[in-house]
Every structure is written in structure tokens, then in C-alpha cells.
């Protein structure tokens, strides 16, 4: 919008009758037109201004053969003029003289300024306007909405046709800039869905996104018409667009300003005018519309990029290959899609494998894949297969990338089928002004903030699930902590959790506000306060640890200033005092070994057995005469055969190491036991460098990931979140032993590399307990100290172990902690 210059000469003076008539008509319509619906108000408002412009143009001599044309762009061009929006006009001329041009332009602009009309105007020749459009992407997008208002049709037609032809032929060279501009706007303005006070125009899923899709449709890169169909995947784009237009229209009328952000102070009146209930009901309507538009804009932008023809050197490069990500899931052309052999109609776990691949890589799920899954995948059996729960944990522990993954599933109905209780919190607006997100997005953000904290707890799986479910009881008019704890029981049973884990999870949901409320409102020097918290948690130090991390994630996901150094220090002090009251927790110890494997160990040979467990999991037992390096080589053999280790126990019995692993194949079926034995024997004998092969494969995979990162669209997340590794030295009463726990984000071969680090440090592994929760590993190793070692030797051995572990994990000594187990 431009402000008028100081009028002088014939342009100044009293307000013209045309301006006063327009101003009076605008005031009358604003005061008397409140009974009109939003769409009717836009139509009448458009007719008023277009009629005035046509009449004024005729008065100024802007006729069919005048060499002038008046063109509307923006809302005027789209026939969507809102009460307090700018009037966007272009005065086209056919190289008329400066004097005539000045007279006609002033005759148009000054009456509009005098009538207090917000005006965005320009004066161009057709070639000049096309030149601006070719160099300014924002101007080009605006001119795509150009529409003839008055004057010479020939000029308007040349502009409209020229801009559109220029747009279609030049889109390939402008796509990168368009994508960058769109993602930049999304990052500045956030999503309309899930925001307490959304930006209806520029937010992700807002009106500008529909105009973006219109532009891509004009470039013939997407099926814009199909997106508006009532049965379109993700919902009808046209219906959602009209919803946002109606809300923005009423927002202008209620606020008396050209607001784009729906502030809470206007929401109740807007909702009442639209007849949708209160502001909370309006928030759900807006969130649903915003999600529909965001879904189409995200998938449409990717479709447009993939539809662009390849030219030059890129045309000689072969089409993208399919890269396996999981069973039945591949990456193709920057998206997660189904493998050719996938059979979603017979594979309920496929949804979560797709979701895990998307969250883990940061790649979006293809629109066709989402539709195919929504149309054909069966419901998950009860209880869930263990593999499905693992995939859910991978999603929840992925960090920022999980936002778009869950949103894609939820927009297509897949998330609600996995978690029916989600329906009550979807699009639910917050009741507390400190919350900046809707309840469902707040839950997702809590999981995002919990991901970096997973190595602070022994059970990262319960932390992730607690983040997902902590507010699941909201939206039902009762205490959400109490109801949520009740809902967790059937949810946990459906997920296949053990009764003990369900109890812990219910306790997390029931008491997720206990620590922050007590820390900020109670007297921490009062022993009764500490006793009351400990009693509420039944003296469960593991629950205390989980609640501490959950409270931090919950606070950070609420809004600015909710989590602070002051609050963090109070919480830490409360937790420390409660731990003292709760006293110690049992330390880890060696697992018992079955008599069958003890008898095999007596032969002192090399044995490998594989037998199926539940679902896709198998138990692999590898026995061999104990020697330094055995554990790392056994784990490396499994990793090289694409077997993911979920848990493991390592024991030594009468000179024989008994390594028991629970594994599942990343793809296909597990290898034969004979093949594993052959590789294991070769590794033990030094004939096969399994650890060197594993390190090379990891290096190649890292280089490939870096190469792909450069090809991912601007603004898209490149990698999932990672929690910082932690090395915890655990107290042990056993003389001559050291017990260390390593918590880190899991990756293929991690156990092999950790075991190798301990072996390089000269440690003899007496036993080990390994667990993988989703994408987080928690591995405990018990090592013997040198015979007769005194305190100095033990300290030196511990320092060498730390050095080797820190090198493998790639972190500094700050990752090392000395504390009792479970803290």
C-alpha cells in the first residue's frame, strides 16, 4: 500500500464528489451490511468498488480505444475483495504522453485516497509489467490474478496472457526460488492448524498457499481442480479455502481493521457471527481447514517439483533409484513410498513402518502412498506386534521430523485409527493463555522436546509414550490427569505393554503436573513436602526420573517463558531431595543362562543357533571360547547381516562366552545359522575383518546421507533429533568390577563399536545387558578390573574406558556422569 503524495495544483483542493460518494457508501455498507453473510458481504463490497472504478474510468476517458486499461489484481482480481483489504490496481497504458498519463493517474488515485481506501497501485506499459514479473517472483504471483476492470480490453488481455505464458515457460528456472520463498514464509508464520492465534493469510495452510496452488495449476504442474473435489485425499481444498475467507471477512468487520491474525479478543464475536459456537469451536473449524490446505500445498509443491522436465546434464542422468528403508518401504525421488511388492491390504504394520522411515529420514510421505494406505490397510491387531510398537517409538523419538509425519497420518485418518483417543484432542484449542498450540500440537511438541532428553532416563520408551499420552484426557470436561491415567490402561494393553510398564505410564500421566507445581509453589525445605511427593509416587525412583524429564519437555512445549533456569533449578532440587528420601534402587546384574546353553558351552566349540520369537523377531545365540574381542565381533556379524539388535545378554561361564541376542531383519528374512557361524568363525580367527567392514559401511552410509541432504528442498528438516550420549558409572558393591551404562541414539553396529571400545581399553566384559527402545539404546556392561588392582589402577582403567567410549560416541567428557543406577 502507498500513501498519497501532497496534492498540489489541480490534484488538490476539496474532496471530490466521487470520493465523498464512495466514502459514504463504504460507511453505510459497513454499518448496515453486518446482517449479510461473509460471502454475500464480499460480493456486495466488490460490486461497490468495481462499479465506482468503472464509472470513474469512464469519466476520465478510460474507454475501449483510449490507450488505457484498468486491471485489478490481488483480492480485486480474484473477486474476493474484503472490507479492509488493499485495493490492488494496475493502470496500463499504450505509451501515452506524460501529461495525459499524469492526469488520468491522479484522477484515479486521489479520489480513492480521499475516500480512505487502502491502495496498492502501479502505472505500467504491458511490456513494463511483464518485465517486472520476470524479475520479481512476488510480482509475478500477484499478476497471475490480473483481471480486466475498465478501458481497452486488448491491453488487459495482452497482460493476462503474457504473464501466464511467461509463468508457464519460466517455472522451471523459478521453482527453487518459489520453494525457498514458501518454506521461508511457513517458518516465519507457522501453521494455521494448531496455533492459538493463527495467521489466516500467510500461515502454513493459509490463503496464500491456495494461491500458490492456483499458480502451480496454471503452470500445468498439478491437478488443481482435483484438489477441490469433495472426496479429495486430505479434504476439499476449495471448501477449506472458503472457510478461511469467511473467517477473515468477519475478522475485518469485527476488528474494523485489515487484520490477518485471528487474535483471541476477536474470536468469540467472529465465531458468533459465523454461527459456529464459541471461539473454541471456531478454532477447531480453522484447524481443520488449515490442515486441509497445508496437506494439499505440501504434496502439491512436491508434485510440481517432480513434474518439471529435466534438461541439460540432468536429462542424461538416470531416473532416481528406489532405496530400501524398511520392509515394504523405499525412498523414491525424495519421498517415502511403498515398495512394489508391498501389500498394504494384508500388512497392518506397514503404516508405522512408513511413518518410522519418514520421521527417521526427514523425507515426506508420498501423497499416493498415504491414500493407498488409508484406503486399504487393515486395523492393527490387539495387542500390537512388538515391531509396530518399536516403529511408533522411532517416530516419537525422532524429534522435529515427527511433526510432519504425524500430521500426514492424521490428515488422512491413519493416526486416529492407530490412536482413537486422539479424536478428543485433535484441533482442541487451549484454555490457558500460556499455551501457544492447540492441545494435539502441544502433545506432539512435547514429544519433540522429550527426544533430546531420552538419554537422561533409563526407559526412553516410557518417556516417549508418556509425552504422547500426558494430555490425552483433555477435552472431556473432567480432570485430564485422572481421566488420562485411566485411558492409559486400555491404550497400554492395546500397544502390548507389560502390566508393570502400564502402571508406570499411568503414573506419569496422573502425576505429570506434580513436580512443576510442587517445585514452584511448595517449600522445598519442608520435609513434609518432599515426603508427600515421594509417597504420591510410591517411592518409585524410575517414575521420578521419567516425570522430571517429562515436566521439562511439557514446559518447553507450552509457550515462551514457561521453562526457565529458575524453574529448572527448583525442579532439580526437588528431584534430588526426593531421591534421598526414596533411597537406592537395585543395581543391574548378570542374567541367568538356560541349562541348554550351559551344556553347549561345555563343548568349548563355536555354536550359533537361531529360533523364532514373537512376530518378526528371532533369538540368536552365539557361543565361543571367551576371548577379548568376542562380543564386538559377534555384534558386528549380526549388523553386517542387516539384523537390528533389540536386546542382548552376555555372560561368561567356565571360560565360554554365551551371547544371546533378540534381533529382527531390516529387510527380508534372517540369514541361516550356518552362514552366521561361518562368518563368526572367520571373524574370531582373524580371516574376516567384520569390524572394519562395518566401519566402512557406516562411513559410506554417512557420505550418502550428506549427499542426499544437499538435494532436499529448502526449509525441510534434514535429520531427526538426537539426544546427547551419556556414560554413567554405576555404583557396585562387587570388588574388582566396574559397571558402566551407555545411553545413545541407536544405529546399526552400535553395540559392536561400544564393545570394541571396551576391548581396546583392555577391559574384560564379564556380562552385559543391552536394550533398544525405539531409536534409543541403553547398554550396561560389567567389566573386571586388573587382578589385585588398587584404587589408582582402577581409576586408570576407568579413565581408559571413558576415553575409548567418548571416541566412539564422538562427545566430550561432559557426557560422563557418576551416579547410582536409575538416576
Q: Overview of this structure, please?
A:
The chain has 823 residues and is an alpha+beta fold. Among the domains are: 9-171, Beta Polymerase, domain 2 (2-Layer Sandwich), CATH 3.30.460.10; 190-309, Four Helix Bundle (Hemerythrin (Met), subunit A) (Up-down Bundle); 600-818, no CATH class. 51% of the residues lie in helices and 13% in strands. Strands 8-9-11-10-14-15-13-12-16 form a nine-stranded mixed sheet. The protein has a four-stranded mixed sheet with strand order 3-2-1-4, with helices on both faces. The protein has a three-stranded antiparallel sheet with strand order 5-6-7, with helices on one face. The longest helix is centred in the N-terminal third of the chain and has 37 residues, at 153-189. The two termini are 60 Å apart. Residues 619-695, 739-816 form the ACT domain. Keywords: Hydrolase, Magnesium, Multifunctional enzyme, Nucleotidyltransferase, Repeat, Transferase. Residues 439-540 form the HD domain. Pfam families: GlnD_UR_UTase (PF08335), HD (PF01966).
